[in-house]
Amino acid sequence: MACKSRVSDAIATLVGVFHEYASKDCEEGKKDCGKNVCIDHFKLSKSELKELMQKELDMDNVKDPAKLDELMKELDEDGDGQVDFLEFVGLVAGMACVCNDFIELMLSEQAKSE
Fold first, then answer.
1. How many CA atoms lie within 13 A of 46 on its CB side?
2. pLDDT of residue 44
3. Residue 83, SS3?
4. pLDDT tens for residues 14-48?
5. What are phi and psi of 86, to 5 degrees?
6. How many CB atoms are closer than 10 A to CB 6?
7. Euclidean distance between the first and final Cα of the chain, in Å?
8. d(CA 1, CA 9)
9. Are 81 and 36 in contact (CB under 8 A)?
């Protein structure tokens, strides 16, 4: 689906990437109903989150199991052991804000030096 604006394209990409990774374990037969929660293909499992973070966000620090557990715990607001789309968007929005803060800082420093 072709979008008419850069923001629409960005939204479509964000949704598409989330669902591409959220369905990986289902396609590979790894998701099923566990003891406490039924894992579904509309949420990211820990392994799916790890793969998405490494491949799409260039974040290698999630290779450390403790860091991945910490990230999962922080993102999983409803405590179901998975990351839903809203929880994922919170991560992306936070990262976008940090990037914007950095750009604003660099631009203000540049303006001071001129």
1. 16
2. 94
3. strand
4. 999 999 999 887 665 555 544 444 467 799 999 99
5. -60, -40
6. 8
7. 44
8. 9
9. yes
Cβ(31)–Cβ(81) below 8 Å? no
Scanning the structure block, which residue is given the tokens 């392994």?
47
Q: How far apart are CA 29 and CA 12, in angstroms?
A: 26
Q: Read off the amino acid at residue 74.
A: E
- What is the reported pTM? 0.79
Separation CA 29–CA 72 (nearest Å): 22
Residue type, 17: V
- Count of Cβ atoms closer than 10 Å to residue 53 Cβ: 21
Give the separation between CA 92 and CA 80, rounded to whole angstroms: 20
